[in-house]
Amino acid sequence: MHFFFSGLFWGVLLVLLGLTIVLKAVFKIDIPLFRIAFALLLIYFGAKLLFGGFGIRASRSTTIFSESRIESLESGSEYNVIFGKSSIDLRDFDIAEKSAKVEINVIFGSGIIYINPEMPVKIKISTVFGDSKLPKGNVSFFGDYVYKTESYVEGENYLRLDVDVVFGNVIIEER
Questions:
Q1: Exposure string (b/e) for 132-164, b if CB count within 10 Å is 16 or more?
Q2: pTM for this structure?
């Protein structure tokens, strides 16, 4: 975006504006400069979105229009993927002292969540017009589902994942 605030951008724009005024006054040729500039601006943003160069990372926990990899989350944290793609690695999450909770929201995006099969994990996944795949092959398009790893024991420390998928795709893999 800094390109639009540079001297080069404004210099070229003023030269083109001057040329269109001269062409219209001398040669009676009307060039719709602002329509062309607006169309080129839309093409520019579309190409940036398609090829991954236009990314917004609003914060450490929110990814918008980009791709990210998260390797450590804290207990009680929330992570959002909006119009983007993210891989979240929870295999080294520490639950030795107490249980932990992490919330992950995927909206119009894609996410891969890696969990350790030896760690007790309880996943509550809510899907609305999306695709969620769990380690045992459970697939959800619409609705809620609760998945527990084999090492999960009621009353002991565990990692609770609350995953919400809206018009998106989430794959949870045990590795």
A1: bbbbeeeebeeeeeebebeebeeeeebbbbebb
A2: 0.66
CA–CA separation, 109 and 166 (whole Å): 8
**Tokens found for residue 109:** 């995006």
pLDDT at site 173? 92
Reported as a single tens digit per residue, the pLDDT across 122-138 is 999 998 888 889 888 77
Residue pair 120/160 in contact (Cβ under 8 Å)? The answer is no
Q: What is the DSSP string of 91-108?
A: TT---SSS-EEEEEEEES
Residues across the chain: 175
Give the tens place of pLDDT for each residue, 5-57: 556 666 777 777 788 888 888 888 888 877 877 777 777 666 666 665 555 55
Selection from 126, 71, 124, 116 nearest residue 95 by Cα: 116
Q: Please give the full DSSP string across 10-51, using - where no structure is assigned.
A: HHHHHHHHHHHHHHHHHH-----HHHHHHHHHHHHHHHHHHT
